[in-house]
Write a structure and sequence with these properties.
With 610 residues, this protein is of the alpha+beta class. Helices cover 54% and strands 10% of the residues. The strands form five sheets. The chain has a four-stranded antiparallel beta sheet, sandwiched between helices. The longest helix has 36 residues. It starts with a strand and ends with a helix.
């Protein structure tokens, strides 16, 4: 999932997994049967824990990092003291005597937590006062963190993480933090944070001295005692991520990607002795997160697991499936191609392609790679030269996307989801479908009435008369525009009262304007993952196929039912150069991905007897 608005520590976003409804554990629908294979509910639970409920898993992983570092500091005191005593005995200057580490010093008191929490809430309310924007704090927290309780838990952990790894004063940083930042950017980040700390410290000391003077002089306008200004939240967040990624690299962490059995979600071995210090079971994690899972998330999980298994069975039956060892080696090859901790497999899987998790992507990759190997003969250069037939047939499609063709489209969403209140509507899908079909019928009636009006007007004009209809008939595009104004459920968050925010991702009631295919796909809340899962995209119906001037649909999509209209198309301005090997490889890769989706859904249809 992509996050368009960062607001005072809270994030406004419309995630596809939207709106968990806390309560009793949901009905997962029983085991999934694909041919002779049974996929147990445990696998559905794992998919959901790794995916939409991932923050709960990451909370436990990060907590393990924090507790391990605290334990190392406490247990390392004896060695530090012995080293200090040895240096002192030699007559050299050993510096100040080490002091024992009190683990309680890293705890976050309720008062400390509440102070930070209240500040963040106040900052949000200042930018987005409910009385003028309509935004409710609890709703917006849930939009970003699934629930207020999850947010409070993560915020407390964030404060503790900073105490342990990134305290305000860099002189208090552990060696691990310096090592992590140096690996990522040399001394640049370290020096930058140090300079920022000195500036903030000087400002604080100056303000504090002035405040004391006012208090001593009895100035009633002295106000509250100044506080040390906080480091920029985005910058500190980047530092946290760098430190976390560095520690993760040296901890033996296993999930489904590394072959953990179905009853385990994650293990972490900090000391390398082969016995994990942290073991999270599927059952325990499910008990923690099950009541936040939605029916939509369950349906997507079942669809994905069914599609993966059907594709696996087809590849195996056709003797095209990689062995487990080959698949693991291919995944390691892909992972080793990333040169930075900030750009890794997760960046591609979850960021670019928007798979729900790296684990889900790791299920997909071996199947795609198996397919790619099996179709290599189709990509061999013909004896007469030029492009292979499959690439010639695909070239126009690829050029429209990579050559930056554009479409000006308008989309009317009849939503099953209440964006403003961040909740699925009761009977939302059925009601949305019914209303969308009614709207389409009204559009068709208007088009027919207007065509009849034009015909009669032309006939009257041919005989030198003027035709006046009994009831005024609205021009079809004006009629469509009125329907959008009155019925479109696309939602944009209100602008802040303080500061500015970009409107780049705003839906504008579905009046998207000229957009490339990938821009349009993002605005439609679709992705490479949705394409694989569904076998088609509403985006592509609009971008490639729909005739200009027509209204199509309703199409079922991520949040409801969509009616679409194409106003204009712009041809690609930078088409691929098939004589350039880099461009040619882009063309091959695009064909692989798209033809594999067709292959996978053919397998699914066959498995389901369609």
């Amino acid at each position: 999932m992509r996050l368009p608005y960062l607001l005072a520590g809270l994030v406004l976003t419309s995630a596809l997994s939207a709106a968990p409804q806390e309560g009793s554990a949901p009905d997962l629908g029983g085991p999934i049967h694909v041919g002779s294979v049974e996929i147990p509910e445990t696998q559905i639970q794992r998919f959901l824990i790794y995916g939409p409920a991932r923050p709960a898993l990451e909370y436990h992983r990060i907590n393990a990092l924090i507790q391990d570092e605290i334990a190392r500091r406490v247990n390392g005191y004896a060695d530090e003291l012995a080293n200090w005593e040895a240096i002192t005995a030699s007559g050299a200057d050993a510096g100040p005597k080490p002091q024992p580490v009190d683990p309680a010093s890293f705890e976050v008191s309720d008062e400390e937590f509440q102070k930070v929490y209240d500040r963040k809430i106040a900052e949000f309310q200042q930018k987005y006062p409910e009385e003028t924007t309509g935004l409710k704090v609890e709703t917006e927290i849930s939009r970003a963190y699934r629930s207020v309780d999850w947010y409070r838990r993560e915020l407390r952990q964030e404060i503790q993480f900073d105490k342990v790894f990134v305290p305000d004063d860099p002189s208090q940083w552990p060696a691990l933090t310096f090592e992590a930042l140096r690996q990522e950017a040399g001394d640049i980040l370290i020096n930058d944070f140090q300079q920022s700390y000195e500036r903030r410290k000087l400002h604080y000391e100056t303000e504090l001295a002035l405040w004391k003077q006012k208090v001593e002089a009895g100035d009633e306008q002295a106000g509250p005692e100044p506080e040390m200004p906080a480091e920029d939240s985005m910058y500190r967040s980047i530092l946290r991520q760098i430190v976390r990624d560095t520690v993760y690299k040296v901890v033996d962490t296993k999930t489904a990607v590394e072959g953990l059995p179905a009853d385990l979600i994650c293990t972490m071995d900090f000391d390398g002795d082969g016995t994990p210090e942290l073991s999270l079971t599927t059952a325990d994690m499910w008990n923690m997160v099950g009541d936040t899972i939605t029916d939509v998330e369950i349906a997507d999980a079942r669809d994905f697991l069914t599609l993966i298994e059907a594709t696996r069975q087809r590849l195996a039956a056709e003797n095209k499936l990689m062995s487990d060892e080959e698949a693991a080696a291919k995944l390691e090859e892909i992972k080793s191609g990333f040169t930075s901790d900030m750009f890794n497999l997760g960046t591609i899987a979850v960021g670019a392609h928007q798979f729900p998790s790296v684990e889900a992507y790791a299920d997909y990759v071996p199947l795609l790679e198996s397919y790619k190997l099996s179709v290599q003969p189709l990509l061999e250069t013909p004896a007469e030269g030029g492009l292979p037939a499959v690439l010639r047939a695909h070239l126009d499609h690829a050029n429209q996307v990579m050559g930056l063709g554009k479409v000006d489209a308008e989309v009317l969403l009849v939503s099953a989801f209440d964006f403003g209140n961040y909740a699925w509507k009761k009977n939302g899908w059925a009601d949305a479908q019914k209303k969308a079909e009614w709207l389409k019928s009204e559009i068709e009636k208007n088009a027919a009435a207007y065509a009849d009006y034009r015909k009669k007007r032309q006939e009257a004009a041919a005989s030198g008369q003027e035709y006046t209809p009994e009831v005024e008939v609205e021009e079809p595009h004006a009629f469509w525009s009125k329907l959008i104004d009155n019925n479109c459920d696309f939602w944009d968050p209100p602008p802040p009262e303080v500061g500015r925010q970009s409107a780049v991702a705003y839906k504008q009631l579905g009046r998207f304007g000229d957009r490339t295919r990938n821009d349009l796909r993002s605005l439609m809340s679709e992705s490479a993952y949705v394409y694989f899962l569904r076998g088609k995209l509403i985006t592509d119906e609009i971008f490639f196929d729909q005739p200009m001037g027509t209204v199509a649909g309703p199409f079922k999509g991520p949040f409801g039912y969509y009616l679409t209209k194409v106003l204009n198309r712009t041809p690609p301005t930078r088409p691929l150069n098939v004589n350039d090997e880099n461009h040619l490889q882009l063309l091959r890769d695009d064909w692989y991905r798209i033809s594999f989706i067709d292959y996978a859904h053919e397998a699914l249809d066959a498995a389901q007897g369609k």
